[in-house]
Fold each of these.
Amino acid sequence: MKQNKYDDPKFFAEYSKMPRSAGGLEAAGEWQVLRENLPELLGKRVLDLGCGYGWHCQFASEQGASLVVGIDISEKMLSKARELNSAENVEFLNTAIEDFKAAPESFDVVLSSLALHYVRDLAPVFLKVAELLSPRGIFCYSVEHPVFTSREQQDWCYDDEGNASYWPVDSYFDEGQRTTNFLGSEVVKYHRTVESHFKALVSAGFELESLVEPCPSPEMIKKMGWQDELRRPMMLILRAVKK
Amino acid sequence: MKQNKYDDPKFFAEYSKMPRSAGGLEAAGEWQVLRENLPELLGKRVLDLGCGYGWHCQFASEQGASLVVGIDISEKMLSKARELNSAENVEFLNTAIEDFKAAPESFDVVLSSLALHYVRDLAPVFLKVAELLSPRGIFCYSVEHPVFTSREQQDWCYDDEGNASYWPVDSYFDEGQRTTNFLGSEVVKYHRTVESHFKALVSAGFELESLVEPCPSPEMIKKMGWQDELRRPMMLILRAVKK
């Protein structure tokens, strides 16, 4: 059974309060870096895996994509997406990433923002992405960084005054399920190594074009009080081209 | 001034006692994985950057390389290399990695084992490696993993009984010098992110073919008591091809 945490009313209510939910892309610390790593979208057919509120779909539409499809397992997320980001040419579909089907070469760009760490098995999803993409199509995604996901706690070690002492890593090579606390709820994520991301891409027929460990900009760090974000990598952005 | 720690008699004496020094490649936890990632060496011209005792040069020679050049900044290491690994076709040169010069396209394979974290600036070295390689030449190297090098202490956090509690990460995005304790001596290494390795390779004209976070084999873990090696990545192996 695939997890559909975002349809849980309590979790959804908490998610709605996050800066990136209320403020959209500009409030997401990694957005500028993700944006730099996206290909030209003008005239492209774009698929967004785990589209959430649809902010990235809206962006693709504004960039002149010819077609945008956003999929998400959560109907609550899609309702909000239809309300907030209802640009023309954007279609939202209620389906799990693992279950989505479309004709081969239906898309030129597949993107995914912070959703693939909820997927148990990357290999079949990446094979499907390769099949869905046109020749030389681009797959660009962000996930939580393996340094961030290695322990179930996914939190700092703190000193007696409550300051973050350092970020603890453990069980790094023990890939698989992590039941962690996110926004006050239990959420299941899947930890995997950097090597596993690379191998899953190469095995599916991709060449890696970018590997980025994004930091928020100095301005955002200051504005949001995110100084600790420079102390450990929280996210990983990968861009690959179908060979 | 480039560091030449291995010519320090005390440090060299300690290094000589390490399993990998006394036992060669088979005593190095990452060797099997590095070996799997090396290309076919038969008939190839091979350069080893920071060759140390020359174990990898010896291996290349045994695999039928037509020429093997091992370079190292430490004359003590090279003396030992000439004594232990003096196969025909192997030439040892006393020079820093940063200072080595040869004609363009002089080599088909450049390898480096656990030496490049002593190099301050990767970019000029990688550009030189690309120049030294023939078209479609292979660059394969291991370094200490960024998770391992982020803090100067480069050690576990321990509980009251002296057991490793977890591996602390800090200052991850603060790239540069780390003065750390290795074998009872102060040694300067350079911390950089996974992203920086990838970017330095791509900027020098390489395509990444492998990204591996090696673990010792289950047999070695048992034999050597290395159970903690599964808890955090210690090394990174990258193989790239000149485009």
Amino acid sequence: MSVDSSDLAREVEVLRITKDRCRHARVSVVREIPLTIFLNDREIITLLCTGAHVENLAIGFLKSEGMLQHLNNLQRVETDKDGQTVLVYTNEPTEMAEKLFGKRTLTSGCGKGTIFYNVLDSLQSQPLKNQVTIRVDQVRKLMSELHKRSELYRRSRGVHNCGLATTKKILLFRADIGRHNAVDMIMGECFLKEMDTSDKILITTGRITSEILIKAAKMKIPALISRSAATSLSLDLAHKLNMTVIGYVRGGSILAYTGGENLIC
Amino acid sequence: MSVDSSDLAREVEVLRITKDRCRHARVSVVREIPLTIFLNDREIITLLCTGAHVENLAIGFLKSEGMLQHLNNLQRVETDKDGQTVLVYTNEPTEMAEKLFGKRTLTSGCGKGTIFYNVLDSLQSQPLKNQVTIRVDQVRKLMSELHKRSELYRRSRGVHNCGLATTKKILLFRADIGRHNAVDMIMGECFLKEMDTSDKILITTGRITSEILIKAAKMKIPALISRSAATSLSLDLAHKLNMTVIGYVRGGSILAYTGGENLIC
């Protein structure tokens, strides 16, 4: 199945705050889907992606991982109707793939290993109860503080910054080449210190994708603030889990993607 | 072992091109290390990260993935001398962790599963033979074209753009929420079409980390151009593999991290 490029973003209702105005608006968010790849009927992995060119993505992933060697060995590639499963058939032994995939390296851009759908199911039955109310000037001040604290970013331009915050200040600050790693460092520290995070805010320079939202949900953190944009799947989850997602905090602008009622203009 | 924040970036020699000058300079690049996490003596994963707060990262990763449930069950955490291995011991059954980790979801920020060190070893014995020579004005024109082609980025601000190019034009363009996915789509298409990529350039909006460099090396692509910064590990590999890394192409500025002799000012 091919995906029309117009399907790769969708319009959502947001509250848009500019320097002196606060109003409802519609913005585009990029599509995010879980794409599961099977090799010779064995489930290999679920990638979170935009959903375009899924067959090339599956082939490229398998090739990149060394699970597919020669084009002659490729028998066929099938995509199911909803475009979320790609089945690849080869006449190369699959055991090699499994062996290669036994020890995985996760990238700077991630830190994942969940059984995606199980996690979704269990989280969706537990919407967060707490809410955090925050003023627009506090959002701007937190983002400004996040930037100020990252000497490493200013030096190298190579990291994402992340903080655990109250409405008034950043309590924990971490920076890493991986936006997921920065969140995991905070999760680890909170777990070790038995910190209650259910009244806190997670603030990040990275985009808000489904995994970042899921990590926050696991910590019962009710609100996320990002310098960057959110994806469609993260917003679907945020609605279901009763979470506030405030994004694109930059240059005086703020978008409340979800939970706009918790943002005081 | 704790890491001093001053160790998290290192200075490298680059060729810095501004609007009217081309000179040698020193810039900071962020540290990137492979961190391997063991749970009860079983190897779980290798994360690519900056190397700070590695114990919190390991604990947060295991907690986030559901492999660590209660603080009471945590027995001890050890980090080896070089700070690249964390050993976590619990009295929770490890089989659960393995079951949970049987089917993994990789994130938008990645598409990985290599046995990291094996890949490094095999790649390092095969430095690329081809080189691509490119003029500064061509670099700027390619980056400008990459931006122009991404209607999805302009609409949603939620994707990374990636292209396979000659010095004169972009041949293949892909955008995805994951910078690794965008590269894998290109790899898949080139593999299926049996395209020779050994004289091409990979151009991306994303940072150049080790995995992006490794994916390019596997395609024998000798040169990378990025709008963003590079990491220490990607540059170490680029030197060994004889690859050109041109980064931070924005606002008239360009940094040739490696292969400066292939950039014509």
